[in-house]
Design goal:
The complex is a heterodimer of chains A (288) and B (309). With 288 residues, chain A is an alpha+beta fold. Chain A folds into three domains: 88 residues, Helix Hairpins, CATH 1.10.287; 47 residues, SH3 type barrels, CATH 2.30.30.60; 118 residues, Alpha-Beta Plaits (2-Layer Sandwich). In chain A, the strands form two sheets. A five-stranded antiparallel sheet of chain A has the order 4-3-2-1-5. In chain A, strands 6-8-7 form a three-stranded antiparallel sheet, covered by helices on one side. In chain A, a hairpin with a 3-residue loop joins strand 2 and strand 3. In chain A, helix 7 crosses helix 8. The radius of gyration of chain A is 38 Å and the shape is elongated. Chain B has one domain. Chain B is 1% helix and 57% strand. Chain B has one helix and 25 strands. In chain B, the strands form six sheets. In chain B, strands 12, 17, 19, 20, 21, 22 and 25 form a seven-stranded mixed sheet that branches. Chain B has a four-stranded antiparallel sheet with strand order 1-2-3-4, with no helix packed on it. In chain B, strands 5-10-13-14 form a four-stranded antiparallel sheet. In chain B, strand 15 and strand 16 form a beta hairpin. Chain B is elongated and about 70 Å long. The chains are: A alpha+beta (288), B mainly beta (309). Chains A and B meet through loops of A and strand 15 and strand 16 of B.
Chain lengths: 288, 309
């Protein structure tokens, strides 16, 4: 086919396009651009604080072109071009790409749902499966967690979405508990008062819900006190770490013993031992 | 016991204080053009503790009860030192001409900022339907030290001789952490230590048709305007809609003319420009074009029975 013939073919294709078609194409494309603009602007406003900027720009770019392509597809009858062959080829390519990128698409969709549902946020203290740590990034395909040991862990979003997620700081406050054993000879009421005073002095041990200090169990070696304290979720671990030492120090300062595990053994003499030990209890050697 | 303290209140005014036998003699000296004036004030030592609050130049030395604030100039920089209840802080300042402002700020910064809400708890008040009543309570204050130069200011330090306590308003999932304060109810302006407490003028309106029991008021720090003069002052309004719902709002008005409006610590964290409009600082924030919600909707109860759990 010569160049002149090709030009003639293109000219023959567009020869059927009239002014109405051109206007229709222009209007459809204009509407597509307007819709794309509205959708991308909405997405920028909605997700700019939830996603990384480059990821958001990438998604916005994809959405923009998808809408424009849909507009071209809708306008295609006015081009007088038969797209049925293109659709068949496109369908085959889509199936191939679909199989090849199954996990990628799964992660992508999971990422979108994670961003919409927001079970975790950046900075949250979470547990996903066997990974515990702080959320560093929520990307479109994966979530990055920094473990408490400072190790970088990348979790595919599909796994995040389908796993049990424990978010330790999702609620504004949380409760933690201590168990402290005091000696049986100590006054449990005094110990409870001392512990309550220490809790009262701690700013982040919340006033309401009220902390609880009570005798929970009469153990083998100790009278076991249970202490339940609510603290702001972001501060609970610091409070938990510092308060136990303060309680221990206060109890010791007031002479309350926190005993080691102990067992009292009572030795009872058999009547036959009277002759051997005598009344004084000292050993009498039969030979002496 | 008798001792004397000298410190400058501003570039043109200095104050000397003698404390003797529980009384304070204050000589305020200042110049206005060619005139030099001195004013002698003698009053009980407990009355003028508020003298800590004000604007100072870069050579101030303040001692007050458990507090000391010093700014010392060296060759190329300034050193700010503060001691409060045995806890000290030190900052290095690179500035030539500026001022230090010390004023009461919202009590939401210590030991660290975890909330925007202040909760004042008091003995239950039973409010008759469709009635408005005014009560005087107290609220905790923290002492904010601001550094100011060339129309800009920033928060240099926050401290308080009072111990903070926090609480939870509402359930753990939807509620909010609050800075908690227990207050007595007063019919008139109570005596307070301005370094620890301020006077909260609370007007309660019962807009419902039933008696309502109220024992706490929760406020948000946005728009929390604190004034100081003889005492620290904040004015608020609480509208009761039902037994569990009310709205609180901090009012912008001082108790009387002559009170000074505090620079807020909350805005200082994002304020870029401060202008003086009619001797009152006007705060312009970067988000000023977005109207900030200054009221707080109490939807988890107004009394002690509603713990949200």
């Amino acid at each position: 086919m010569t160049a002149s013939n090709g030009t003639a073919d293109i000219a023959s294709v567009f020869a059927d396009i009239n002014l109405y078609d051109i206007l229709a194409i222009a209007v459809i494309l204009l509407i597509a651009v307007i819709i794309a603009k509205i959708v991308t602007t909405f997405m920028k406003r909605k997700f700019s604080d939830r996603m990384e900027k480059y990821e958001l720009n990438m998604i916005i770019g994809v959405i923009w072109w998808v809408i424009i392509l849909i507009g071209i597809f809708v306008a295609s009858p006015h081009f007088k071009v038969d797209l049925s062959g293109l659709l068949v080829a496109g369908g085959i390519i889509a199936v191939i790409i679909g199989f090849a990128s199954q996990s990628v698409v799964s992660n992508l969709v999971s990422g979108i749902f994670l961003i919409l549902e927001r079970p975790v946020k950046i900075g949250d203290n979470i547990s996903i499966g066997d990974v515990n740590g702080n959320v560093e990034h929520i990307q479109i395909l994966s979530t990055i967690v920094r473990t408490f040991e400072g190790i970088y862990v990348r979790i595919p979003n599909e796994k995040v979405f389908t796993s049990n997620i424990t978010n330790f700081v999702s609620n504004v406050a949380r409760r933690f508990e201590y168990k402290i054993g005091i000696g049986y000879h100590e006054d449990a009421g005094v110990a409870i008062r001392i512990i309550s005073e220490v809790i009262l002095e701690e700013p982040f041990a919340l006033k309401n819900p009220e902390p609880q200090v009570f005798v929970d169990r009469l153990g083998d070696s100790t009278v076991d006190l249970t202490i339940r304290i609510w603290a702001p979720s972001k501060e609970w671990y610091d409070v938990r770490m510092s308060l136990l030492l303060k309680i221990k120090t206060a109890l010791e300062a007031n002479g309350i013993e926190i005993p080691y595990p102990q067992r009292v053994v009572t030795v009872q003499r058999a009547p036959s031992d009277e002759r051997r030990y005598g009344n004084s209890g000292s050993w009498k050697d039969n030979d002496s | 016991m008798s001792y004397c303290r000298h410190f400058r209140v501003s570039r043109s005014c200095s104050v000397a204080r003698w404390v003797h036998a529980g009384f304070i003699m204050v000589v305020k000296s200042g110049s206005s053009g060619d005139e030099w004036a001195e004013e002698l004030i003698i009053c009980p030592a407990t009355v003028i503790q508020f003298i800590v609050y004000g604007t100072y130049d870069y050579s101030c030395h303040i001692r007050e009860d458990e507090i000391s604030v010093d700014v010392e100039r060296s060759a190329s920089y300034l050193t700010y030192k503060r001691v409060c209840r045995g806890e000290s802080a030190e900052r290095t300042i690179a500035s030539e001409n500026g001022a230090i402002t010390i004023n009461p700020v919202e009590p939401l910064n210590l030991p660290k900022e975890v909330t925007r809400n202040l909760e004042v708890h008091f003995k239950p008040i039973f409010i008759e339907p469709e009635v408005t009543r005014q009560f005087f309570l107290t609220f905790p204050v923290e002492i904010g030290v601001f550094i100011r130069a060339k129309g800009d200011y920033d928060l240099l330090d926050v401290f308080s001789p009072a111990k903070p306590k926090y609480s939870l308003y509402g359930p753990p999932d939807y509620g909010c952490v609050t800075r908690w304060h227990e207050s007595a109810i007063h019919s008139g302006i109570p005596d307070t230590n301005p370094l620890r407490e301020g006077v909260l003028d609370l007007t309660i309106l019962n807009e419902g048709r039933t008696w309502i029991e109220v024992s706490r008021a929760v406020f948000v720090n946005a728009g929390m305007t604190i004034w100081y003069g003889d005492y620290v002052w904040m004015s608020a309004r609480m509208e009761l809609f039902s037994n569990i719902v009310a709205e609180t709002k901090i009012l912008q008005a001082p108790e009387k003319p002559g009170m000074t409006r505090s620079l807020p610590a909350y805005s200082a964290k994002k304020v870029s420009v401060v202008e003086m409009v009619n001797q009152i600082p006007f705060y312009s924030t970067r988000k000023a074009f977005l109207p900030e919600k200054t009221g707080f909707l109490m939807e988890f109860g107004l009394g002690d029975k509603d713990d949200g759990l």
